[in-house]
Amino acid sequence: MSKKNIRILAIGFFVSGLILLMSAILMPNSPTASGQTEKVKDLESDITYLEEKIAQLELEQPVAAEQPSETEETAESEENSEKNETEEAAEEESQATEEDQTEEQADEEAVITATITINEGEPSSVAAGQLEANNILEDSMDFDDFLEENDYAPYVRPGNYDISSDMSYEQIAQTLMGH
């Protein structure tokens, strides 16, 4: 490009800028970037509110499932009044022991291993989705957020990876990064 052409281009940009400035000053009610910024802020506040509401509902849901119905509470209170304290203590100890043994067995048996395949150009969310589909993770979005927050997402490499359900998020991320 010649010097003359560059000057003409610069003058064109300058004149365009002046026209935009004048239109913003003379027509303050027209939709501009500032109007869009307000809409974005409104949407962000709506998203934040909805995320908080979701978290609140998720916290309430297990509580509702754990609460027994009124008829169950009445039956339990009648049974408890009939038992003496020593029988209750012995029963609680045996239940606690059985629950601990059951949990230990479930933990040992519940380890799931799966091969995750990441193809060239696929985002980290694909890997997280495969992990959830194979019952390695409960929430793929949570794991994908972990990758993003720790800046691991860009380093996830294509390939086949053996992942097990007893691995932590950090261990899974390191494996997916090829470390």
Query: Which strands sit side by side, in order, in the main sheet?
Result: 1-2
Output the radius of gyration: 30 Å
Number of strands: 2
Helical amount among residues, as a percent range? 55-70%
Q: Give the integer mean of the pLDDT values.
A: 77
Secondary-structure-based class equals mainly alpha
Task: Report on the architecture of this protein.
Helix content is 69%, strand content 7%. It has 7 helices and 2 strands, in the order H-H-H-H-E-H-H-E-H. It has helices spanning 3-26, 33-66, 70-82, 85-109, 124-133, 140-149, 169-176, and strands spanning 113-118, 159-164. Helix 5 (124-133) runs antiparallel to helix 6. The radius of gyration is 30 Å and the shape is elongated. The model has no long low-confidence stretch (mean pLDDT 77).
From the structure above, extract its key features.
179 residues, mainly alpha, two-stranded antiparallel sheet, 7 helices
Task: Offer a quick outline of the entry.
The chain is mainly α and about 180 residues long. It has helices at about 5-25, 35-65, 70-80, 85-110, 125-135, 140-150, 170-175, and strands at about 115-120, 160-165. The model has no long low-confidence stretch (mean pLDDT about 75).
